[in-house]
Amino acid sequence: MSKIYTKKGDKGDTGLYGGERIPKSDIRVEAYGTVDELNAYLGLLCTSDNPAIEKEVIFAIQNHLFNLGAYLAATIQKQAEIAGIKQEDVRFLEQQIDAAEEHLPPLRAFILPGGNTSAAYCHIARTVCRRAERLAVSLHQKSPLKPEVIQYLNRLSDYLFVLSRRSLAVVGDKEILWKP
């Protein structure tokens, strides 16, 4: 039986798919590590009993994020071999946003994160997603990425915002409005 630890990263570097070793502080590692963190928060969101949280949709997104993480964790030469994120994945999120927004009142004020546990989890995931997006943009400036990577993260943060609103509306909880 193989062990979970290899000791290869004990000096602060890690291997990419393709064999190259880079420092664990590299922007590429930060980007795919943050995508992994986001995926973990989506797993937490799936523990919710809120009927607005459609677990099959979240599971599909989690699979997309694994594909995205694999793409980010590959050398430039190996990225072509990895499906990563496709335009149909971006469209999937747009469809989910449109479906959730159909049942929501128009947004007329900024909303504070919270309201119920599910909405709070959505907001945490949304902010981690925005960080992943910023890191992907920084990585893209250094090493060009497929445009769908940034598009997907941008739409996912929008979806998580709408899902937070929907998770409040479905159970009759109120949005907490910002009072400037």
Question: Your description of this structure?
Answer:
- The chain has 180 residues and is mainly alpha-helical.
- It has a single domain (20-177), classed as Cobalamin adenosyltransferase-like (Hypothetical Protein Ta1238, Chain: A), CATH 1.20.1200.
- It has six helices and four strands.
- The strands form two sheets. The chain has a two-stranded antiparallel ribbon. Strands 3-4 form a two-stranded antiparallel sheet.
- It is elongated and about 50 Å long.
- The model has no long low-confidence stretch (mean pLDDT 94).
Element order: H for helix, E for strand: EEHHHHEHHE
CATH class, named Mainly Alpha
Number of helices: 6
Mean pLDDT reading? 94
Rg of Cα set: 18 Å
Q: Return the domain count.
A: 1
**Second CATH tier, the architecture:** Up-down Bundle
pLDDT < 50 runs, ≥5 residues: none
Question: Major sheet, described briefly?
Answer: 2 strands, antiparallel
Query: What shape does the CA trace take?
Result: elongated
> Can you say what the CATH homologous superfamily is?
Cobalamin adenosyltransferase-like
Q: Structural class of the secondary elements? A: mainly alpha
Q: Order of strands across the widest beta sheet?
A: 1-2
Distance between the termini: 59 Å
The total of beta strands comes to: 4
CATH overall fold name? Hypothetical Protein Ta1238, Chain: A
> Portion of residues in helices?
55-70%
Could you tell me the strand content as a percent range? Answer: 5-15%
Structural key phrases:
180 residues; mainly alpha; Hypothetical Protein Ta1238, Chain: A; 6 helices; 6% strand
